[in-house]
Amino acid sequence: MSNLLHNDNIQTINIEETLQSSYLDYSMSVIVGRALPDVRDGLKPVHRRILYAMDKLSLSHGAKFKKSARIVGDVIGQYHPHGDTAVYDALVRMAQHFSMRMQLVDGQGNFGSVDGDNAAAMRYTEARMTKYAGELLKDLEKNTVNMIDNYDGTTKEPDVMPTRVPNLLINGSSGIAVGMATNIPPHNPQEIMMGLKALLANPNIELYELMEHIKAPDFPTGGTIFGKKGIMDAYATGRGRIKVRAKTHIEKKGNKDIIIIDELPYQVNKARLIENIANLVKDKMIDGVSEIRDESDREGIRVVIELKKDAMSEIVLNNLFKQTSMQVTFGIIMLSILNQEPRIFGIIDILKHFINHRKTIIIRRTIFDLEKAKARAHILEGLKKALDIIDEIIRVIKSSKNIEEARDNLVSEFDFSVIQAQSIVDMRLGRLTGLEREKIENELLELLKLITYLESILKSEEVLHGIIDQEFDELLTIYTDVRRTDVEDDYDDIDVEDLIPNEPMVVTITHRGYIKRVPLAQYEKQKRGGKGKIAVTTYEDDFIERFFTCNTHDTLLFVTDRGQLHWLKVYKIPEGSRTAKGKAVVNLLNLVADEQIQSINPTTDFSEEKSLVFFTKKGVVKRTNLSEFSNIRSNGVKAILLDDDDSIITAKIADKSIKYLFIMTKMSQCIKFDMEKTRDQGRNTRGVRGIKFKHAEDEVVDANIIANDEQEILVVSEKGIGKRTDAGEYRLTNRGGSGVIAMKMTAKTGKYVVGCLMVDEEMDMMALTKAGKMIRVDMQTISKSSRNTSGVYIVKGDDVASVSRCPKQPIEDDEEDDSLFESNELE
């Protein structure tokens, strides 16, 4: 033991430093030599070596197939000293149409399936390169790339392929290295070529301009991408997340719906998906499915999901998207190798590196062709010179003892180069004919033109760009594959909303603040003047203040009398029966003491093309862009600044189709003015004067928005008298004026007006009485009158609390005697 301790061959090392150094070497070997693609040709070393081995075996597109085992043997024997299974798996994937956007290998035999079936053994399958793969190897023989030693130094292999196509983006790549991973999605070759042309024309192109050409990834299996934000993030920074859904359609089978899956998200195993759906149905995690079967064939995917009679296909489909791989998230990481270093690239950087690679390839190819052309021209110039003095040439050759002496004599006597002299010595007698002489001269002339052109490429960046652009045009005509993956805008995560049917609802709110929603179908349509049905059971001192119709998926904007705005989905409002009291709205919204809801506007989006128009009791009007209310806090936001004695009466959503604003006071004074007389203001502003009152005790009771003068306005008084009048009869005045009389007020109409509606042929009117009754009336049955008249009875027996519009519904009650209302016209 003591002898070992004093042995001079033993070295003391720090195990921590040694492990660190060794692991770092291993990591870089995996990163650079195995797991990550090169940014220039988009190939990992194993793929590059497979294609190079196939090229050496003359397995180009159109050649005879060779056994995959032969190819794999050459790869592992000469270039890639790893397991044959790994190499064969890589070759198989290059041949799968559902894995590669543009296949690199043309396979013959069983190369696996989208169900996850394995390929046949390599001894059974055969392969050759595709036409597209040929684009990656084009000009390889012209010294266009560096050739490096193979693993044992016995032969050479290319460091990178001189590809004409940006394979990294077209076919994508995925791989896990040490401490990093790449996941680059495939793209449409046509779009990529157009993007390259745009970048070549404008090196300072912005991402949004590039995305006019390259819209999104394009997966070989199709599907649908939802949302552009993840795409833009990935293209800008190299990292992003996109959602990909299966493509489906609905078919009918008797009275049942059938969901058909036509395309799957990228890399989803069809057999495993079907098994997963079956298990979810068995465990009652997904309801409404009666049968699942796979009817896929050579023509494509067709998975049939039969539903039960009462099942709603939309709900079942959303459950499938939420709980199965019919919807997946594709995490994009555009990591690749540049100069032996791993880096994350944005899409513009990847395209720029490819263009720079093409410049290098074309320059090296041009130099190769130029040297070859000059060498040939040099020989032809010698032959041409020799033909001019052919008799002397023959004399020298005849007097020489051997070929070497003849060559040397030609060099010394006639000033030929060694190469020229050798070609003259090797020249056949047939070249002495006049025709052959002409051929030599023509060939030399063409070569001189070629040399001039090749030299212009090396001298001019513009000419070089023109060649690259011409190549892209050529590739555009060859690879004309259409986009397979659709792109949908503005998709959010599936939540409970997508699992709830989107049905029409009547939402009611009482004076004491109770709210509920009831399916619209529960209300029966009645004739004008009908008694109505109880819409809600109220307390003795309570009554319904307002109601409206909307769909369960709509967003409700609650505007309070204090100018606060709150945000709520319709489906979050408790559903009740016709006679249920509902739920206190204070339990759904964060309202302060005595704060009252004055306006509820349903909307499906928060477009910048829309405005929210506020009307106050004191006649103030204000417009604010709807987009300012897209992100509301739980306690709401301040939507308008109000004077101490003022409050909100109502608020309306207006788009660019709206021309006029219409304000109605309780004493039948009204004003119509151009909406452009107001402008969009921020949330924390007061607004401007809309109407000037003639009477100190007057105040605004309702307001509306008008698209054109052909529209009709329905005005209703507190005693249930109403009339329709053309909007054009209300004189257009300046904002802030006194306006005109809207209804002739009498004892029968009552002292005050309760509201006004815009008449729509597709809509009915609903009137709520202070006793809680709801009456539905076809507005077309209400008589049309001029501005300064009263109207006809709409509701009898009770004072009207409010009026609103709702979608039409077929008449179910025809028993009312309409003759009761023939003489109710008031002058």
Descriptive account of the structure:
The chain is of the alpha+beta class and 827 residues long. The chain folds into four domains: 43-162, Topoisomerase II, domain 5, CATH 3.90.199.10; 247-325, 2-Layer Sandwich (Gyrase A, domain 2), CATH 3.30.1360; 350-478, Orthogonal Bundle (Topoisomerase, domain 3); 502-807, Neuraminidase (6 Propeller). Helices cover 29% and strands 25% of the residues. It has 18 helices and 41 strands. The strands form twelve sheets. A four-stranded mixed sheet has the order 14-9-8-17. Strands 10-11-13-12 form a four-stranded antiparallel sheet, with helices on one face. A hairpin with a 4-residue loop joins β6 and β7 (181-184). The protein is elongated. Mean pLDDT is 86; it is low at 810-827. One of its GO terms (molecular function) is DNA binding. Belongs to the type II topoisomerase GyrA/ParC subunit family. Residues 36-499 form the Topo IIA-type catalytic domain. Residues 804-827 are annotated as: Disordered.
Descriptive keywords:
Topoisomerase, domain 3; 4-stranded mixed sheet; 4-stranded antiparallel sheet; DNA gyrase subunit A; 18 helices; ATP-binding; isomerase; Topo_IIA_A_a_sf; 827 residues; disordered C terminus; 4 domains; Gyrase A, domain 2; Topoisomerase II, domain 5; alpha+beta
